[in-house]
Write a structure and sequence with these properties.
Elements (H helix, E strand, L loop, with lengths): L1 H5 L3 E2 L5 E7 L4 E6 L4 E4 L4 H9 L3 H9 L5 E5 L8 H32 L1
Antiparallel strand pairs: 1-2, 2-3, 3-4, 4-5
Helix pairs in contact: 2-3, 3-4
Length: 117
């Protein structure tokens, strides 16, 4: 747990995650989920970390580019968080749905702004 404490955590706006960190020297990506669980992903390139930070939907990026692509381990499990694969999949689905809803809202707002001009 000592490594997790010394990391420089970057807060992220996401329905699935609260923060991320990266250890360049070890090529390790850390993701803190909303339920408090922290996972470490091994042999992860810095470009993946940068792309994750830049992604409009962190959950969608995670599902397509990180999940099941890197060896991972649970570094910290929040007691009672129910960290089963099913709950992770449910959270991913919710996160993707939230991202899709935000995209629709942005599109609608842009359209409304264009109509009002």
């Amino acid at each position: 747990m000592a490594v997790v404490i010394t990391l420089e955590w970057v807060p992220v706006e996401s329905g699935l995650f609260t923060a991320t960190a990266y250890r360049k020297d070890a090529r390790q990506l850390y993701l803190r989920f909303r339920d408090g669980d922290i996972y470490r992903y091994f042999d992860c390139p810095a470009s993946t970390y940068q792309e994750f930070l830049a992604a409009e939907s962190k959950g969608r990026y995670f599902a397509k580019h990180i999940r099941n692509r890197f060896r991972d381990e649970l570094v910290y499990g929040n007691e009672g968080s129910g960290t089963t694969c099913e709950s992770l999949e449910e959270r991913l689905r919710s996160s993707v749905l939230l991202a899709e809803a935000r995209a629709v809202q942005k599109r609608d707002a842009a359209h409304a702004a264009g109509v009002q001009e």
